[in-house]
Amino acid sequence: MKLASFGRAAAVLSVASLALVACGEANNPGAENGDGNGNGEANGGAETSEVQGTLVGGGASSQEAAMTAWTNGFTSVAPEAQVNYASVGSGAGRDGFLGGEYDWAGSDSAMDDDEWEQSKEICGPDGAFHIPAYISPIAVAFNVEGIDDTLNLDGDTIGSIFAGEITTWDDEAIAEHNEDVDLPDTPITVVHRADDSGTTDNFTEYLEAAASTWEWEASDAWPADISAESAQQNSGVVDLTSQTNGAITYADASQIGGLNSVAVWVGNDYVEHNAEAASQAVASSTPVEGQASNNMAVELDRDTEEEGAYPIVLAAYNIFCNEYPDQETADLAVAFAEYLVSEDGQQTAESAAGNAPMSEDLRNTAMDAISEITVAE
Question: Which segment of the chain is annotated as a signal peptide (predicted)?
Answer without folding.
Answer: 1-21
